[in-house]
Specification:
The chain is α/β, with parallel strands linked by helices. The chain contains 14 helices and seven strands. The protein is 36% helix and 11% strand. Helix 4 links the parallel strand 2 (99-102) and strand 3.
């Protein structure tokens, strides 16, 4: 269903659909004569023997040096619960975090919206609810996205096996539109538990929504393409979608040691790492079996000096997703 005319969602910037746009030519424009600058040794621009200039890196397109080490420190699971909302906003405002991702279907997502102050927040597209004692489900009430007890399926495989892709598309679009309606200046898209990222049919929906809303994407690293089985990074690049150069993967929740090791070895370019910060509370301990790791992620971002020192020692600059979104929308 389209939003009503004059609504916040309708007014939010939306590009012309891809099927109405002439495909961009991949043939480079000829170099103007005044830029040829042939030199006697044949090495000038356009002269015989000239070498092809290297492709501009993402760091350079963002205005940094080619060898700059840029890191997005993203907080997943904003909206998951009250403890996560407090932890994520503290990490963004008083700690080292530079971005966050909102779980729109979760019970405390509306509370996250009430506490929003223009922070760099994307949408954590959610089609799973993995906990036994704490459940949430599709905001579109899509039948194929409900398991036996009325919430989203608990596992990635259950979604892949049973979800109707049209219902998945409607649900994910509705999550983005609701975040916009609540007042979030959405900075990017990523996917809870990776469900939308690592199976080709679901990735098509993920990519289409990034193009539709002109938003950068979280993608896993290039070294995972052969394992996952399709060239998702090339597909995103062909559509003009911007995404980080690399990704620090953490199995489950609890990022401390993996992140500290990754920072020490960080390569030039833009890398994304993610954490799940939350403050300790009886609510969190009762419902989340991984609560200690969430509390430790909050401690790492807000209170400890370990990560701050590691970033300084490695010469890393922390950035958010919003510069990538602005770059994507500028078409440069």
């Amino acid at each position: 269903m389209s939003p009503p005319a004059g609504s916040v969602v309708a007014a939010w910037r939306r590009p012309v659909p891809r099927w109405l746009v002439q495909p961009r030519s991949t043939t480079p424009e000829p170099t103007p004569p005044e830029q040829l600058d042939p030199r006697p040794d044949g090495t000038g621009r356009g002269g015989e023997g000239a070498t092809v200039e290297s492709v501009t890196s993402l760091a350079e397109r963002l205005g940094y040096a080619e060898d700059a080490k840029l890191l997005i420190l993203n907080c997943d699971d904003l909206g998951f619960c009250h403890a996560a909302n407090v932890g994520v906003y503290q990490a963004l405002r008083d700690g080292l975090a530079s971005s966050a991702s909102l779980m729109v279907p979760c019970p405390w997502a509306r509370g996250a919206a009430a506490g929003y102050r223009g922070d760099d927040v994307g949408v954590h597209l959610t089609v799973n609810a993995e906990f036994d004692l704490y459940r949430w489900g599709p905001i579109t009430h899509a039948p194929s996205l409900l398991d036996g007890d009325g919430g989203f399926p608990r596992t990635v495989e259950d979604v892949w096996d049973h979800a109707d892709l049209d219902e998945v598309r409607r649900e994910c679009r509705a999550q983005i539109e609701r975040a916009i309606l609540w007042g979030f200046d959405v900075s990017h898209l990523d996917a809870h538990m990776g469900t939308m990222q690592i199976k080709s049919e679901f990735f098509d929906v993920y990519l289409d929504l990034a193009v539709e809303f002109e938003l950068p994407l979280r993608l896993s690293g290039a070294d995972t393409e052969s394992l996952i089985g399709f060239p998702f990074r090339a597909l995103a690049a062909e559509e003009g979608v911007v995404f980080p150069d690399d990704f620090v993967h953490v199995a489950g929740v609890g990022s401390r040691q993996i992140l500290l090791d990754a920072v020490a070895d960080l390569k030039p370019g833009v890398t994304e790492a993610y954490l799940h910060p939350a403050v300790d509370s009886p609510e969190l301990e009762a419902m989340a079996t991984d609560w200690e790791a969430r509390v430790d992620d909050h401690r790492l971002l807000v209170h400890d000096r370990d990560l701050r020192v590691a970033l300084e020692d490695a010469g890393v600059t922390v950035i958010g997703y919003r510069p990538l979104r602005d770059l994507m929308r500028s078409g440069s």
